[in-house]
Amino acid sequence: MQTKNIRNFSIIAHIDHGKSTIADRLIEYTGTLSKRQMEAQVLDTMDLERERGITIKAQTVRLDYQGKDGQMYQLNLIDTPGHVDFTYEVSRSLAACEGALLVVDAAQGVEAQTLANVYMALEHDLEILPVINKIDLPSADPEKVKTEIEDIIGLDTSDAVLASAKAGIGIEAILDQVVAKVPSPAGDRDKPLSALIFDSYFDAYKGVIALIRVMDGSIKPGMRLKMMATHKVFEVTDVGCFRPAPVNVGELSAGEVGFVAGSLKNVKDVRVGDTVTYADNPVAKALPGYRGINPMVYCGLYPVDSSDYDNLKDALDKLQLNDAALLFEPETSMALGFGYRCGFLGLLHMDVVQERLEREYNLKLITTAPSVIYHVYKTNGDLLKIDNPANLPPLTEIDHIEEPFVKATIIVPNDYVGAVMEISQDKRGEFKNMDYLDVNRVLIKYHIPLSEIIYDYFDRLKSSTRGYASLDYELTDYQTSKLVKLDILLNGEPVDALSTIVHVDRATQRGRQLAEKLKAIIPQQMFEIPIQAAIGNKVIARETVRAMRKDVLAKCYGGDITRKRKLLEKQKEGKKRMKSVGNVEIPQEAFMAILKID
Ligand code: GDP
Ligand code: MG
């Protein structure tokens, strides 16, 4: 297809503003799938995902659309992962586009991730087309939202599409604006190949599939290509596009978006952000912006049943096939035995991996509390990068410790400014500035330790602002903080997997709260269990789990059978995820207790 008839665009939005629903309507309206097929398609995808344990990303889709000028256009809709964990992937997807639909909920207005996404789209010089969605809602106020977009973002909204993805309003207008306003891609099909990888996945039959945007040149089956960052050379077996199921085409040329498959078996060879070129006639320079993967959050994963250790390794290997951002290496804990230390892009990524390991691979796991990477400067001049609190050297060997900080952007209604400040201060945040977005909403910026963000910051923000706060953050720097390791001893024995790194000013309080919390979580056993919190050799808190009375059922006085059954079930439930540490049975919740303290 001639580049003048190609349009490459993304949809950007704050979560729940209707990105996916609009994408569905565009697919439907252009006849790419019928309504009935759409439902079938969604189900198929989920089945496949379950069967093969892979994520099929069909959201990048090619639409054929006849414009008002009577010409046929190839519209490539490139999906972006919405979550803050995947910011880099979003940025690569945007680098593959010339335009973006900015979807804003007509009842909610501009939110933190609306802004974050817009800034990213502006960095890539994209043409941004505002779409005000959900105008069917009784609480919709499109005029107010337009004003917000103009005032806060500085975009002209005189042509903004007023849409309801739910009611199917404004869909044709969106397509017409994409054709009229998004620039056609530049690029020359006769130049040597350069194509940007913006996503990848593993297919059991075809191996690794790279999603690409061809900048210059063209790709056909049989060609020998090279990845510029990983140096991997491969022969192309398939090229194609998504409709939204993968469909082979004869060629992908300059300006087009699609997939390429070849002799690629490992997602690590196919890195998002890398450039694909000819193996024999490569371009001199890779496309800009390539970055390696840096996990930000680490935790330990241990099988409840130690005989599952090999199964856990297999499962992690399989997940990694499709997730180059997942890192893991063997780790041994005195308390938990053999397991893996895993690195993730963020908390959502961590949750997704844990859930898949448990659901798809039937593993029962003990997960330790997530940790950031600390830079520990030792008195002998060494720098250690520590992602497991248990590995912190003794106090006497530490000169100082640095921890990662983020710039957090919070948007809330005026009434909640006090609440946001209180929580942020409590989380060691440093107030940066505050801007009024309009008469009743404010944007607040804080410089805040990442470790505090991963400890329930967002949950607390949400709950104390009745769900109105929206949050976005990005890593900015490492700074020195006065940090110490808080140890927990059960029965006089330190439990390494319960150690955490805390700020010295909060250490005593955290130690007390954690000991109390553990007392509530650890079930009574036949003997008394002392719980101690300690910093170095100094015990700062002590609690005791009393010994169990002989018979749990004794208090039921024989009569009530359902109550008895409930008690027994509760006991069984509790048994599910226990790990014996020494002779103490510790449930999963104990390892996460530190996250639940406020
Ligand atoms: P995303 O997170 O931006 O992808 O948002 P979704 O497309 O998943 O939509 C979030 C929720 O808003 C879903 O429950 C949709 O059904 C609903 N929704 C999307 N578009 C509209 C709309 O135009 N009107 C109304 N009333 N609801 C909508
Ligand atoms: Mg969605």
UniProtKB/TrEMBL annotation:
PROSITE patterns, per the entry: G_TR_1, G_TR_2
GO biological process assignments: positive regulation of translation
Domain spans labelled Tr-type G: 4-186
Predominant subcellular localization, coarse grouping: membrane
GO cellular component: plasma membrane
Coiled coil segments of this chain: none
Database matches in SUPFAM superfamilies: EF-G C-terminal domain-like, P-loop containing nucleoside triphosphate hydrolases, Translation proteins
Bilayer topology annotation: Peripheral membrane protein
Known EC number: 3.6.5.n1
UniProtKB keywords: Cell membrane, GTP-binding, Hydrolase, Membrane, Nucleotide-binding, Protein biosynthesis
Keyword flag Membrane: yes
Binding-site positions, GTP: D16, H17, G18, K19, S20, T21, N133, K134, I135, D136
Keyword flag GTP-binding: yes
Stored CDD domains: EF4_II, EF4_III, LepA, lepA_C
Reactions catalysed according to its record: GTP + H2O = GDP + phosphate + H(+)
Subcellular location, record wording: Cell membrane
Pfam families named in the record: EFG_C, GTP_EFTU, GTP_EFTU_D2, LepA_C
GO MF term set: GTP binding; GTPase activity; ribosome binding; translation elongation factor activity
InterPro entries linked to this entry: EF-4, EFG_III/V, EFG_V-like, EFTu-like_2, G_TR_CS, LepA_C_sf, LepA_CTD, LepA_IV
Lineage top rank: taxon: Bacteria
Family: Belongs to the GTP-binding elongation factor family. LepA subfamily.
Record HAMAP family: LepA
Cited function: Required for accurate and efficient protein synthesis under certain stress conditions. May act as a fidelity factor of the translation reaction, by catalyzing a one-codon backward translocation of tRNAs on improperly translocated ribosomes. Back-translocation proceeds from a post-translocation (POST) complex to a pre-translocation (PRE) complex, thus giving elongation factor G a second chance to translocate the tRNAs correctly. Binds to ribosomes in a GTP-dependent manner.
Protein name: Elongation factor 4
Natural source organism: Propionispira arboris
